[in-house]
Amino acid sequence: MFLYNQLMLMKRISVVLLIVSMLSVFSSKATAQNKIGRVTGKAVDDGGKPLDGATISLLKVKDNTLAKSAVSSKNGEFEMEKIADGKYLVAVTAVGFAKFNSQPFDINETSSLVTLGSLQLKAATKQLSNVQVTATRPLIENKIDKTVVNVDAAISNIGTSALDVLERSPGISVDRDGNISLKGKQGVIVLLDGKPSYLSGADLANLLRNMQAGQLDQIEIMSQPSARFDASGNSGVINIKTKRNNLKGFNGSISLGYTQGTYPKSSNAFNINSRKGKVNVFANYGYSLFKGYNQISLYRNFRDNTTKQLNAVFDQKSFIKFSGQPHSLKFGLDFFASKNTTVGFVLGGIYNLRQNTVYSNTDIYNGNSRFDSANVAKTVGRDPWTNYSANLNLRHVFDSTGKELTADLDLIRYDSKGQQNSDNFTYSPAGNILGDPFLLRGNLPSLINIYSAKFDYTHPLKNDARFEAGAKSSYVETDNNAQYVYYDKPSNQWKNDKRSNYFIYEENINAVYVNTRKQFKKWGVQLGLRMENTNSKGKQITNGQTFARHYSQLFPTAYFSYVLNKANTFGLSYGRRIERPNYQDMNPFQQFLDQYTYRQGNPFLTPQFSHNVEVSHNYKGQLNTSINYTRTTDIINDILEQNDTTRITFQTKKNIATRRNIGLSISYNKPLTKYWTMSAFANVFNNYFTGIINQKPITVDYSTFMINVSNQFRFNKGWSGDLSGFYRYKSLEAATIVALPMGMFSVGVGKQVMKNKGTLRLSVRDPFFLQKFRGYTRFDNIDVQIRNVNDNRQVSLNFTYRFGKNQNNIPQRKRNNATQEEQNRVGQGG
Question: Quick check: pTM over 0.90?
């Protein structure tokens, strides 16, 4: 079946390539006669000395869009050919110099050769009196297709984690388990530098908690990604862009950070980059120490199914102490084989020894509120986790019009060797042990291999049009062999436990897409279509249960924009998307708080599908308003199941319902004074669920709102400050869990030191300890009150130093590997 699918995929790819080739030939013939222009010149400094490596941009006068670009040679000269008829100007930029704009000129049949001569750039002014002039970016940038968060613009971000930054970003919320939602909708795909983020669910949350905010450059939030992206992710894509040095020569940075909460934390990173001739080498190493805790309180009422009379009350308090020490190493090389061709490879590895200890005490009362017994448990987990990855990539630019082909091959391996010991003892009110202890030992190895390949082709057309096409194929295999043993006191032996399960899962996804866009004066149109063919099979070897699924789906996307005037732009978009279950959510392992409470995977989860519509309005790039509508079927959600006889409650995931989400969001970003910039975001939305949970019908209609506000202050002599916070009103999580209001705020101060090569920042997060999860579930026979407190109150100190020879900027290499969806579905490990 796998070979057959690959043959069919190659057939589809051949058709796409044939179409692309025909378009290329047609476009070349249609445009060759009009592209006759040639522009030459020389970039020099104010003393007449040639500038090597200056960036030359050919701009269309009518809309200031980029038509072509070039880089000056060692003697400062540049040349651009095959320029279509039109009116242009040339912009020249170089590090340490002010931008230079030429006078406008025409390219036509009578004036096809334009010689600009020497273009003289003046040295940039570094300091005016005692006021330092620095370029600053706003915290929030509202664009028609995405929202961009510039991380360094908020001082209070420094010293915190990437997860903290996400939680304070517009429209994003993080629940008690680390699941990320966008505008009230779960199912977000998170990328790092356009690449997979390696993990999802609790494992993704752990990774982001151990990634310091100082490593981040921008966060791009896209609620309606195009057909070029994988169709997964019901509510959109979040791309976390890390800092990357793009200067010639040898340079780098070192960052040291210490955070004190209840437990200490530290995040440190070292980055180097060397560009010489045709070779660019880069490497980075990171080490973090993360210690923290969760304090979970569960108050559960057990009632008679018929009379609803109270039979028992469980008052459970659990303290979870956890730690991690992730080491990450990445090494890569780019070889510029020619002016148009670049090949590269990236090798990466992560090792993290994760450990957690759960101390749980449950007081058990009878229906008359009389103390009956107590269960005391200690559960210890140890999980050495490793990840190895290799990426081979190619980029070829066919000509100066922007026609290009990119390709990626990826091999990814995850290896987890988890172990879990749970010891439970029951005591009488007098303090005597009742019955036999519940002692369980689990050996829980998990292995995931991902193989993936993809290519993307871009073909510019006439009159501001563009055609894109591509294909991708991935194969994933997971091996999860959970072996449990329990202690049998009568025989004084450890015996195999019925919880043991050996689950093997294989999945092959093949995809092709086409995407085209065109600008019609004030109207912009982008249309795309992605086809994904999925073949999967799973087997529980222990009990012999198997399943196999084969399906193909189409995922159309459409975007329309209209520029009314310089101040007002309107947008309309539609997209169909899929959310496949995470690999570890299908893993039937059990993770314990105590013998009465645990989490368990579900191997029979199926994908959920959504239709997304969004209408937006942007005013002067400062005020952005959008209305969104989403309908999701077969939604995957966390649910609680309860056995009233054994008094066991466990959390799992199931396809339970259909959800309709309607929301209104408003974001505003504007400098209020010379020193003060404010960014604000508000989102009001309604979630409506209807479906079946535990064989019982459910209908839930819930409205809520959330607010994010951030203030940035820029002062003289390199000083800066930040005050930010968020508030979330009473909301609904996972269809049946009601989350009570929650909020927090942070404050920070920063100072440029060591001739602006160093930055020192101090921040305080949640000083009044306001961010605490409180909620409840009351559905069918479930009646639970929940309280979850984390190590949120923190003080952080961070120092960053940049070193090396700062030469002229070089074009930054764009890297996208082939596993954008697969790695996002790896984990659910907490």
Answer: no
